[in-house]
Design brief:
Layout lengths: L54 E3 L17 E4 L9 H8 L5 H9 L4 E2 L2 E2 L11 E4 L15 H13 E4 L3 E6 L15 H4 L12 E2 L8 E7 L2 H12 L4 E9 L6 E12 L4 E6 L7 E13 L3 E8 L6 H8 L28 E9 L5 E5 L4 H10 L16
Parallel strand pairs: 9-15
Antiparallel strand pairs: 1-16, 2-5, 3-4, 3-5, 6-7, 7-9, 8-9, 10-14, 10-15, 11-12, 11-13, 13-14, 15-16
Length: 400
């Protein structure tokens, strides 16, 4: 959805008057915070409807730059400053976007990839200056160019039905709640697997650029070319991508706008694993920052909040909201409020939506796409009388 369809928080502007080339998220001077995001302030209310049409501003496609070839022999590379703290699997995806998820997992599991001469796990974090031994790599074998099977045709149509935006380089999917992004134990269908039906004549298939939890719905970014994958992955790494989430939480956070800053570390158990709030210096702990704003409340028992993650840690939003004692409704891992009853008519499913994604296009311009509420969240919004077309007050939250 284009910012030209919306009024800004502080200054009125004639629709469509945004300077050419300006991005929806401008860098701000210290202390330059919008009125609607001031801690303790009252959330801004706008009645102007929001249209669900995705927006994109770009120039004509240019010739694709040369793509990085996959190594056919063993090679050793050094982790750069930009790659510091990257997971091993994401390091390989960024370096060689043509690799499939299954191939990455296979070479890591077999110990063919080594970090400073030692075996590594796909989730291990790399440090600047480390040496990474990379074995010969290959793309998945291209499929024949024959007609698609009935099952593949249905899968292709399902992807088309999910598509919020698409061009020659990029797709933005509206991932439904319950559909996994990647394969794993007990998962028979996932987005990465579905993308197999979109392999081109060279055997390349669209690549996932980021992840969403299985029960989280909304904007999922997919690169259709290696060139786009490299550029988009860099945008996430350098935090030039902007993500806005909507959630329904228990209680009403105070102040109504704020910043959550903690360290998070994974806590493993026999049955499950969760992210716990940790201390600086704890093993595996990573800094995580989230901005939140209360958009609307329902009888002080529930609040619709808008969330802007500055970092992208696993389960970050879910762990952060539980940390401030306002867990997301329907969260099976982090909802920890005792003697709390779900209001009648609401489904006990995770109420978290990847609402909006704003990111530089790999060539020129900006992709700005919004996803509608999924059915179970729309039902809750209607039952509670929440206005889902309200202006999102957190979109101009500061970066740090």
């Amino acid at each position: 959805m284009s910012r030209r369809d919306r009024k800004p928080l502080a200054k009125s502007r004639t629709p469509g008057s945004r300077p050419k080339g300006a991005t929806p998220f401008r860098s701000k001077k210290p202390g330059d915070r919008p009125q609607g995001n001031r801690p303790g302030g009252k959330p801004v209310r706008f009645a102007e409807p929001r249209r669900e049409k995705p927006a994109f501003v770009a120039a004509e496609p240019e010739k694709t730059k040369a793509e990085v070839p996959l190594p056919t022999k063993v090679q050793t590379v050094v982790v750069t400053a930009d790659e510091n703290n990257m997971r091993v699997d994401r390091f390989l995806e960024a370096r060689f976007p043509g690799l499939s998820f299954s191939h990455i997992q296979r070479i890591v599991r077999k110990g063919e990839l080594r970090v400073n001469g030692k075996r590594a796990d796909s989730k291990d974090r790399l440090e600047e200056g480390q040496s990474v031994r990379i074995p010969p790599l290959r793309l998945d074998t291209p499929k024949g160019a024959g007609p698609l099977s009935e099952a593949a045709t249905k899968t292709l149509q399902a992807l088309k039905d999910m598509t919020l935006y698409e061009d020659a380089d990029v797709m933005v999917l509206n991932k439904p709640a319950g559909l996994a992004v990647q394969g794993g134990s007990g998962i028979t269908r996932n987005v990465d697997q579905m993308l197999e039906v979109m392999r081109d004549a060279k055997g390349q298939k669209p690549r996932l650029v980021h992840r969403l939890d299985r029960e989280t719905s909304g904007c999922l970014l997919v690169a259709k070319t290696r060139f786009a994958a490299t550029a988009l992955t860099g945008s996430f790494r350098h935090r030039s991508a902007r993500k806005i989430y909507w959630a329904l939480v228990a209680g009403v956070p105070k102040p109504k706008q704020g910043r959550i800053s903690t360290y998070l570390a994974k806590e493993e158990s026999e049955e499950d694993s969760i992210m716990r709030v940790a201390k600086h210096g704890d093993e595996g702990a990573s800094h995580a920052v989230t901005y939140y704003a209360v958009v609307e409340t329902s009888a002080q028992k529930l609040a619709w909040v808008s969330l802007k993650p500055v970092t992208g840690r696993t389960h970050q939003l879910r762990a952060h909201m539980a940390h401030i004692d306002h867990a997301i409704v329907g969260d099976p891992k982090y909802f920890n409020k005792e003697n709390w009853d779900l209001p009648g008519g609401l489904q006990n499913r995770l109420h978290l939506l990847a609402r909006r994604l704003v990111i530089p296009h790999p060539r020129r311009g900006v992709i700005d796409v919004s996803a509608p509420l999924p059915p179970h969240m729309l039902q809750s919004w209607n039952l509670l009388g929440l206005e889902h077309d309200r202006f999102d007050p957190i979109e101009n939250a500061p970066e740090e």
